[in-house]
User: Fold these one by one.
Assistant:
Number 1:
Amino acid sequence: MFDPVAIEIDEETKEAIREALEDMNKPIEIDVFIGPNCKYCSETLKIAKTLEEVAPLRNGVKLIKVNVHDRNKNKSEFENQGITRIPSLTLMKGAIRYTGTPSGEEIRGLVETIIRISQEDSGLDTSTIEQLKTLTEPIHIEVIVTPQCPYCPYAALLANMFAYEAHRNGNKRFVSEIVEAYENPDIADKYNVMSVPAIAINGVLAFVGVPYEEDFVERIIEIVKKGARVSVEVLGESATGL
């Protein structure tokens, strides 16, 4: 039976990832959250370890380091980053997170996210960055995706770069969460998702499909102004100062 989440990373795929990661400049840490009775934790760990394996060396040091956190042994890190589901994979200590396995097409978005953070260049328009600087409220973006969706990585990358710029400009309470729908059907059902990518902002379904930058940031501002709030538990202790 075909499993859309399970992934086989062959040598051709490894080489493509290796070539892409050569554009990295600064080191990046990936946190992987696993635990018992977890069907796809091994898949998420395999992806992260492959990224670490093929990452370039700079001064004898790998530019990707993977930290593994087991729910039974590292509960504090789960709480620190606001992680409640396994498997999860995070960058920037939870500011960017993949809830579920970033397999299939999502690997492309994850690799590009890593490269842009490493280069300290989000690729966003200057006007978008300036608008993001005005946002000081807690913001939780959820991008619902599936591994087969060719457009989902673009929506994920955009949300991830919004979170990156927000954090770079002082808003540590901005979270981009990429939710794999097969592993988290309750989240997809919550928003009555019939097509992906679907994007929710602070619990409000805002887009189906990949939005333009200017529409995305304007919708965030609009939803925040209307008073849609996100619980502090989602953000994690590191973002709330607890």
Number 2:
Amino acid sequence: MNRRDSIRSLLLGSMAGGLALESCVTENETSIEKKIWEYQYGRTPEEKAYDEKLLGQQFFENSEIEKIKRLANQILPPNEKGNIEEAKVPEFIEFMAKDFPSIQTRMRGGLMWLDNYTNKTYGKDFINCSGDEQYQVLDQIAFPDPKETEQKQEVQFFSLIRNLVMTGYFTSEAGIKELGYKGNQPNVWDGVPVDVLKDHGMSYDKSWMPKFVDQSKRNDLAQWDEEGNLIS
């Protein structure tokens, strides 16, 4: 079992157990709207306004975003089932840094540490290092000494970004498909089967038939009036 399969197994096990940054950006409203989550049903106006506020700002510089992309691909390499870019993991990490300002210093400090270390060791920034050189650096902070009572800041940084990468990918459409998780899916119910009714000497009143679920409307969202009465 390779590393990616091991991660997949761990996530599936956890799901079975319980299913479980800031400078202005000159983007127009249309551009920002395109960034708003694809599935907005259930969001309150306040929540949507908060999302728009965060999506209209940028915390990481472009060079930092590129570094995050490289890190994410090293942590979870692409395969035929999906990749970091498809799952929009860098965008997710950018959003989380703005949504939780408490992680900003650790994130930015960790990215700076990578360049400082590789410049001293290889004479170039992390992004310009070869894949093998990058792995050599990451191995030092990905597998810390378990006997240490307090891990170094660079170790804490890697733990944080690894968690963000895994969360961002495996909560995306691509990641959910890779997990093979289906969730609850509606089926078609046309009442008690005829043979079961017959066994019990019963049958439906014909006047009931139009009252059964109209399957042509099964994907329609419910609508209520101002008094809370279901109208569709």
Number 3:
Amino acid sequence: MYRSLHLSSNPNGESTVEELASFRHDLHLGRDLRIIATVKNCFQVDKNCRQEAQRARQHPEIHGREKVRPFYYGLVVAYSLAHDRLAWDLGDAEWSFSSLEPYCIDIFDKLISLCGGNCVEIVDMDSGVKRSFQHPWLRQAHSVQFSADGRRLLVSSSGFDAVFEFDVSTGKTCWEWFAWDHGLDQSRLGEYFVRSRQRGEELAAQGHKVVLVDDPSQHELGIPTRFCPVHINGAFYDRDENLLVTLFQQGGAIRVDKATGEASTIASGLINPHKLHSRSEGGYYVADTRRGELLLLDDGFQVVRRISLREAPGAVRSALLTEFLQSVSELDDALFACVDIHRSTLWLIDVNARRYRGVTFPREWSVHDIALNHCSPAMKDLVSKTFGRVDATVDVQGGKRICHFSPEGSENTTYILDSDGRTTGGKIEI
């Protein structure tokens, strides 16, 4: 059995915080590796300004938007880590393609899966055949993972606090789990969100404020982050193929037994965590996002190391912005890629040798996740066939332009940013 960890008390004192700045800077770290980055959109500067303004509202500790926003085009881009920066114009990229709000990818053999918006796609990299998997309750797909045998696909639905498992061969749902149906139905603002009218009536009779969501078609983009009870932002298999689920709003993580649907708390006291995931050589890791820490856990989910970005080189842009470690990925045994969104830096951290290197990316990029690139060589040929291309340029005044195209070559949309990285014309809700 595991014991639930709770960071705010840390009663055993087993995990002293290690500052990344105390590690040795290694210019050669990870240069032989190739990665894929998902960039959900290019409006991070606008998003930072919106988050700064929201710090003045009541209950600023409750993170997120108060109304859902449209999905925007982002990009998926492959780079060699021989580069010290990921360039806006994509000149050094191995390949890149346009995608509607891409969040996460996973690769199994010749299949690559990509989630974003309200669906998840699987592409056969050899044939170029693309299939889309959908579900009535799939909104704001945040994470995707193949099962160990590649036969099933696990997807988290942040918009409705749900997790779905699809059969890869048929595309049919073979398992589903809803947090609201298992007691995780009260938002931090006090409202209860329910899918059952009977459950809603029971809660209302007790004097609670209830939001009945029994028809997902009435919520095209899901529930706004600020009001969502938990805002599930990641679901991944543990070694027994039960589920590890991060709860953004509740600051914790649970383990869901697939056989029974029962959920057990394995972490609390985190601040808007992301991606609780198994390590290659045993144990687990998770991003304690707004605390700015990479946590390494043992097989019993106890914290064994805490590595902080708070004193990392490069200042957070505004005193009103908290740390924001968007995600963490283990690229090799003990080598982690950490997306530090407010420093526009991908930190490569060798936790065993205590070494690090930073790879910068454009401040406009809202980078969400990093994966090791072991795609088929045919992947590059799929751009402008299966996927639409993306063109990005910078003018002499520093303004930026990014154009997104359909696979057929027609222009889907063009976004224009000024020299400060802001969108112009007030057309973007971010």
Number 4:
Amino acid sequence: MKCKICASLFSLAIFFVSCAQQNNNATTLPATAFQAEVQKQGAQVLDVRTAGEFQGGHIKNALQANWNDAQEFENRTQHLDKNATVYVYCQAGGRSAAAQAFLIEKGYKVVNLEGGMSNWKMNNLPVEGSNNQAQMRVEDFDKVIASNKLVLVDIGATWCPPCRKMLPTIDQVKKQFSDKLYFLAVDGGVDLDVMKHLKFETLPTFIIYKNGKEVWRKTGIVDAAEFNKVLAN
């Protein structure tokens, strides 16, 4: 079964790469030219590798959506801005070429990094990210929940497109309920023990606790009115 799945994914990747090569809108840039473009204000940089690869080192301000996870990729990339170019990369250029073709079909303008992160590093260009950041301890998380009457937990990450889209809404909710709400941010790329403890599934996830008990949970985009309805009661 695994062999069949791998073969199917490989065939799909080849199909999209072929489409990219035939599409006049598919642009590939060498590392130095790609760097010049992504340094421009408002550039959308998309890493299509796995979360583990991303945490091992990525381009500054990059978002992350795993091309090999169809659901995750579609859920996250739907929040990209079609009015701005998407600069996409993977480890060697294959996955990103397939992702590029897919996104072009969806109406995005996409530029691919030639040779991926391997080529980027060969050119001694800057890489961010580290696996050495300390995790939040489960016991510390539980202590916060138990010692506050009303807690909003936000499981997100700076590299997650819908998480970034939620920032203005979360800021609005925090200000509105600042007198009674404890806000606790869980890093979706670091706090793995806490996420396992919470039976986490996808980014972003929001959980509200009242008097130490979970009373509400929602994934994805949530508007301020929905938060207000739960928090005000």
